[in-house]
Design a protein that fits this description.
The chain has one helix spanning 45-50; strands spanning 6-17, 25-34, 37-42, 52-67, 78-84, 89-90, 95-96, 101-107, 114-115, 119-120, 126-132, 141-148, 163-174. A hairpin with a 4-residue loop joins strand 6 (89-90) and strand 7 (95-96). The longest helix has 6 residues, at 45-50. The protein has one domain (6-174). The relative contact order is 0.31. The protein is mainly beta. The strands form three sheets. Strands 3-1-13-5-11-9 form a six-stranded mixed β-sheet. 3% of the residues lie in helices and 53% in strands. The protein starts with 5 loop residues before the first strand and ends with a strand. The radius of gyration is 18 Å and the shape is elongated.
């Protein structure tokens, strides 16, 4: 049995809405329904070797609408970006490459946004969803899947055991 345990803890601490545009009446909401904290605990050889996947772990509701003064819709599409709040996945005495973690967005109930597939974590904004459509807030669900150590180049096998931590920032903005 493996005695050293890798633990990776992701805390989604900041959710921001970017209202960049020229119209006057903007309404935006971004809400975490579930999965605000993600723990990856590598406590078996299989997990070290294959990595860990949490499918549809974080559920986000996103709503964005932009109208002019007369109530005419100007821009109803939105995009969802994410990034790390640091240059590495930081440990007590070690660091891991950000690309150890990959995120995938999937449409949830009622959503028909254009999800762009699996993307590696970066310290720069990475777009997960573009052309999100206007839909009621109650139906606008985006599911986020996390992969950690599944990419052959960025496995946690042979990495120093530690408690690793990274913050992920999600940003919804007009598209």
């Amino acid at each position: 049995m493996i005695k050293n345990i890798h633990k990776l803890y992701i805390l989604i601490i900041l959710i921001s809405i970017s209202n960049i545009g020229t119209c006057q009446n903007k309404s935006a909401r971004l809400q975490i329904i579930t999965g605000g904290n993600v723990d990856f605990i590598f406590n078996s050889f299989k997990k070290y070797d294959s990595g860990i996947v949490y499918t549809d772990y974080t559920k986000l509701k996103i709503y964005y609408i932009d109208t002019d003064g007369a109530g005419v819709h100007q821009n109803t599409n939105w995009q969802l970006d994410f990034k790390a709040n640091s240059a590495n996945i930081e440990g007590t005495s070690n660091n891991l490459d950000l690309r150890t973690i990959e995120l995938t967005a999937n449409n949830g109930a009622g959503t028909t946004a254009n999800c762009l597939g699996k993307k590696q974590l970066s310290s720069l904004d990475v777009t997960l969803v573009d052309t999100g459509k206007e839909i009621s807030f109650e139906q606008s669900l985006i599911n986020i899947t996390y992969d950690c150590g599944t990419n052959a180049t960025y496995k946690v096998l042979n990495k120093n055991p530690d408690f690793y931590f990274v913050d992920i920032i999600f940003t919804a903005s007009p598209q």
